[in-house]
Amino acid sequence: MKILAMTPFAADMNLGRAYNEAMELLGPDDWAFMMDHDAALTTREWHRQVAEAIAFKPEAGAFVACTNRIGAFWQQAGDRENHDMVHHRAFGAERLKIRTLLDVTDTMGFGGVAFAISKRTWDRIGGAPDGMLCVDHGIHFRCRAAGLRVYLLESLYVYHWRRGPLANGQADNLPR
Q: Cα separation of 129 and 105, whole Å?
């Protein structure tokens, strides 16, 4: 089993198709760790954390990370307004002490800032829906419909820029 970190991209903004194309690169026993283009890992431990979660719950549909700026409040951790990476790296290191998986299957969907999913799950759920917005929710609901559980890896914290301030103080409201 390999865990491959990926940041799929499509110039035509069809993130779902980009995810599907990326997943075609994986072997049947592999996992993908997908990250948004505006996300950053805060510790070096992400691979160990994901591998440990997979070993503990190999039947899981997906694992999602905590982050600072996201609409899914059950994934929210950290300071939304602080964009100092030293701060976020320290917060991420502190989160490493948490050793729990929170079942978020019955929520309104995960935010896909950073998530792990297996090739087997991907094939079972029929991949990601086409489009840009709510692709992550589509993956979540497809996992749930297939009877697969989705877990929040509470120790894994990633920083998410999402509409953060630009150098001139203006908000970055560029399309995601």
A: 18
Strand partners, 3: 31
Residues 23, 4: Cα–Cα separation, whole Å: 10
Digit-coded pLDDT (tens) for 50-67: 999 999 999 999 999 999
Query: Phi then psi for 87, rounded to 5 degrees?
Result: -60, -50
- Show the tokens assigned to 152: 């929040």
Closest CA to 97 of 123, 77, 114, 124: 77
Q: Quick count: other Cβ atoms within 10 Å of Cβ 143? A: 23
* Neighbouring C-beta atoms of residue 63, cutoff 10 Å: 27
Below-50 pLDDT ranges, the chain? 175-176
